[in-house]
Amino acid sequence: MVKKEAELQETSLVKGINKYNKLPQYFIIFDPYFKIMITVSNVSLQYGKRILFDEVNVKFTPGNCYGIIGANGAGKSTFMKILSGEIEPNKGEVSITPGQRMSVLKQNHFEFDEFAVLNTVMMGNKRLHALIKEKDAIYAKPDFSEKDGIKAAELEAEFGEMNGWNAESDAAGLLTTLGIGVEFHTKLMKDLTGKEKVKILLCQALFGNPDILLLDEPTNDLDVETITWLENFSRF
Ligand SMILES: Nc1ncnc2c1ncn2[C@@H]1O[C@H](COP(=O)(O)OP(=O)(O)O)[C@@H](O)[C@H]1O
Ligand SMILES: [Mg+2]
Q1: pTM
Q2: What are 134-150's pLDDT values in tens digits?
Q3: Which ligand gives the minimal distance to the CA of 69?
């Protein structure tokens, strides 16, 4: 996919989803609070001799949902990884309004296979998840010192500010909304069907309360009810 800004607009590879009644075939970028903007400047990427992007310039303006469509292997997932910072382009840069949280539903649905369902959802809030791990590690120390006590108190304060005590019930509530019952909470992701997994990964993406939501092929494996729910949700 070698497209410059003019071509991108001309071929409508990047289109406002508002023009569609349905979700686009591939992914949407969703900014629910009307305050973010992503700027892609002169982004180029090639794998070996294969040029995927050559000086792409595109702006995602506040208040819109966008869809990117293209043939298999055109580079849609790669472009999303560049937007989310997972991979660096060879040239150019992506800038995102500072302080905005971004969540991603990746096309790879196997990444969390070894984790339990409720934990997977909670991992959607990265800072909270890191805090819980740090706290647990300190409390598990056999030689818990005064210094550890001070650190634990600091972590507990941040945990409280982030509404950490409600995190589990919030995550469970999201899962219930999408029809994943309590009986699934302790199951491992790898033991679920593709349809169940993608709902849980969607909950994970939403759990971080993102300002920007990147969804790569969100409708793969989602049932009609969830697609309708997502459509209504993404219309704000
Ligand atoms: N890490 C990588 N190394 C080399 N080639 C890659 C890598 N990731 C993706 N590709 C290639 O880049 C192209 C675009 O892939 P991808 O972004 O997954 O396409 P899409 O999501 O549009 O189907 C494909 O030809 C793929 O094989
Ligand atoms: Mg893809």
Answers
A1: 0.78
A2: 999 999 999 999 999 99
A3: 1
